[in-house]
Amino acid sequence: xxxxxxxxxxxxxxxxxxxxxxxxxxxxxxxxxxxxxxxxxxxxxxxxxxxxxxxxxxxxxxxxxxxxxxxxxxxxxxxxxxxxxxxxxxxxxxxxxxxxxxxxxxxxxxxxxxxxxxxxxxxxxxxxxxxxxxxxxxxxxxxxxxxxxxxxxxxxxxxxxxxxxxxxxxxxxxxxxxxxxxxxxxxxxxxxxxxxxxxxxxxxxxxxxxxxxxxxxxxxxxxxxxxxxxxxxxxxxxxxxxx
Length: 243
Prior knowledge:
By secondary structure, the chain is an alpha+beta fold. The chain is built from six helices and nine strands; from the N terminus they run ααββββαββαααβββ. It has a single domain, classed as Roll (Pnp Oxidase, Chain A).
């Protein structure tokens, strides 16, 4: 009879066992077993820090790479959408110079559209190998077609192929559709290394605020914040923050 069974309730045997990697117990056991900064951490004397953030960022970046940090050039980019809701993703740093922190994407992607409407954004680098974090806030500017295309010229064939594949953030009908478009883009990238990618855009975040965080095993973390003086490009105020 239809009333003899309740298909909306799982059977007793359907719940994952406590030892299953899918069980809540397994998740919490793993979560609470993880150690933080279980290694010797570098020292950081904020009084010896430079007067501007860029030299310190370059020093910390090079140190993280030498310490074995995997992909130290990856960073989080935070933007806001048309409703003011935050959005964040991981992407790669392309340069850091007097103009700011550089990255690239398609102007037609979600991040590209969000930056066009709301150019204020934030970046975060986290290097757990040395317990260091760098947070950057400022306004993003899109570079012109010439500089944007030059961004691809110094990168790999795969980077050009990905740019030529395009349609970033659009709805994908199937993995096969992506495979076919990607294969065609790889072939074109090999045959035409100077092929145009009209929507590919290089961006520069001009920093207004940069914070350096050095973790400490005793939780006496050091936070040094640089704030740029309004209407200047080279004058910064430095201050320590409580952790």
